[in-house]
Batch of 2 targets.
Target 1
Amino acid sequence: MTTSTRGARTPAVLVLEDGRTFRGRAYGAVGETFGEAVFSTGMTGYQETLTDPSYHRQVVVMTAPHIGNTGVNDEDPESRRIWVSGYVVRDPARTPSNWRSRRSLDEELTAQGVVGISGIDTRALTRHLRERGAMRVGIFSGDAVADEATLLAKVQAAPQMKGADLSGEVATDETYVVPATGTKRFTVAAIDLGIKGMTPHRMAERGIEVHVLPATATLEDIYAVSPDGVFFSNGPGDPATADHPVSLMRGVLERGTPLFGICFGNQILGRALGFGTYKLKYGHRGINQPVQDRSTGKVEVTAHNHGFAVDAPLDAPSDTPYGRAEVSHVCLNDDVVEGLRLLDRPAFSVQYHPEAAAGPHDAAYLFDRFVTLMEGQRA
């Protein structure tokens, strides 16, 4: 990626790997960038989206037309930096307006070297991705703009998301501890595959001391902290490449320690149980996705960011090396598996994000379920 700080009037072009092209204006840094084109249906929470490590190597198209209205603050980032490789908006805010705002979104993107584009028909682009599927894309502005054949060749030479092993690129290098709020009740070892900052905070609110471990952690590292439970986080990339986390999770399952997984962690549990995973056509991304908890029948509005899913039967429990497992949650838009639960061991996972810093908070009860598992194990 190459960047500079030219004005927003700089022409820019977005080129998809199938040759579809959109022309607009530079937004954020000027230069070129590549990634997988995906769309997010969230109308708010763009700062949390940008800093979610699960978006590593993805170019995010915002379906909401007005982005940047509340600017950027120093309280809402989910990690230490912006992780999206590119950003696409239709109508960026001219002036941010919020009492917590410290700078504009355009300024933040420029400062962090994120190449974006504005002023294009994001509705047409979203419909194209829904029909054709998520695909590689490049954004070019300033001196990076060239003839379309040259730009298309660059896009088609970029790496694909299928087969990408990315969690190690976003995870922490060293273990750190998030202390419990108030009285400590439990200790949890959390495997960082791309964890969002709100996740350990949600556990800390429930009296959990969270030891966040690198993606390369061993089973010995996990049990060195004497955990009451083990957590596997969200993260980017293809779960089919995650052999080490799968092996690690199987070790936890064999010991019978209460286990909870989110997003990538759900896919890891699926693989650990013997299910396959597959790439969705265009994925689920946004903060307005309907999911049903099959144990209660309740429908939750939930936050999603996943392009892969678990291939597990919906109609009946399955036999696994760790006892019976069932699909606990399902997306009401397309019947994609959104959660798994073991019936004979204390382990469960969901494909979406119950920590949801930007909302909604319908699924926050899942952290309480994790606490209940740990209470039961202790008893």
Target 2
Amino acid sequence: MNENERGGPSRRALIGWGGAGLALGAAAAGGGVALSDDGPSAAPAGSGGAVEFHGRHQAGIATPVQDRLHFAAFDVKTEDRAEFVRLLKDWTAAARLMTAGKPVGEGAYGGLAEAPPDDTGEALGLSPSRLTLTVGFGPSLFERFGLADRRPAALADLPKFPGDNLDKSRTGGDLCVQACADDPQVAVHAIRNLARVGFGKVAVRWSQLGFGKTSSTTPDAQTPRNLMGFKDGTRNIAGTETARLDKHVWVSASDGDAKSAWMTGGSYLVARRIRMNIETWDRASLQEQEDVFGRDKGEGAPVGKAKEHDAPFLKAMKPDAHVRLAHPDSNGGITILRRGYSFTDGTDGLGRLDAGLFFLAYQRDVREGFIPLQRRLSAHDALNEYIQHVGSAVFAVPPGVRDSHDWWGRALFSKEA
């Protein structure tokens, strides 16, 4: 089977991963509202409704940020290009159903008693909870399937930054899936079922659960707080700011060269697991905490200002204040779209919480976004005394799935695209 064929295998042909033949046309019934040229439309926060799966851009980037995250990085196990393409098509069909609040394939019950069900069933009876599924391709994927000449230059390997203490078991990955939802069970169900569909072709390399969004893409919403108690992402790019999104987040047809044209409408994702030294931070004085950030802890106002959204006077802050160093005015206008979550993963065995920020940032070019910004922060930021980057990955996030015949990665894998 070549990558341009759209037919799906039979149900029993896929019994090895317990899933139905997820034919793209058959899944179209879960599509929701019509495609928008600007990307997927979003259900209002707290509505429990479905976010439109189809769009020019993948949902889960500029979409209003949901409350929960399950992020997974995968290693590709198959050496067969056609088999991998078939997986991307099956994943797309499964995602189309799950984001609409429907079970995968023929569901969790009612099928052949002798065969595993197509869906694991733990999301039965739950609303879609604004589930979004966002796929990305890591640099290592371009070392296989004859893709070496299609790796965009903007998908740059991240250098080692001062202070990095990266755990190899939480770093890298051939591809990733970001599942965001307002119900953690819906997000976990989505990753679990994609992993089942991919059994034998891909394997989970590492994953991260997140709660308490630490950034917002909805300007009229209250700015969320991180585990250090400070408001985070005050001037984050809003999902309605199309001009800023086009300038800083979405890849343009004019970017790069012919080998990266398939990324038009996509974005580049940097994921960093940032451990917070919670116990040390909790013993710091309030004044020191506010000096580290350059904002007051209550209102979130910048130093010398009264309100959170007042324009900061950077020179009033200490030279190593986080806000001063990270502000676009200090970095030649560098702006990224943040979509991070807090995490707590038990303890480290020494009586300290394993807690922090799972940092997710989307940008138009990693070389002009995260890399120069992090170089500056890792060298001078006062916050470094209280944090450490322990996991890292970078991914090319392709454009959205346009319609019921489209699939994740088609522009990369299909000659017709």
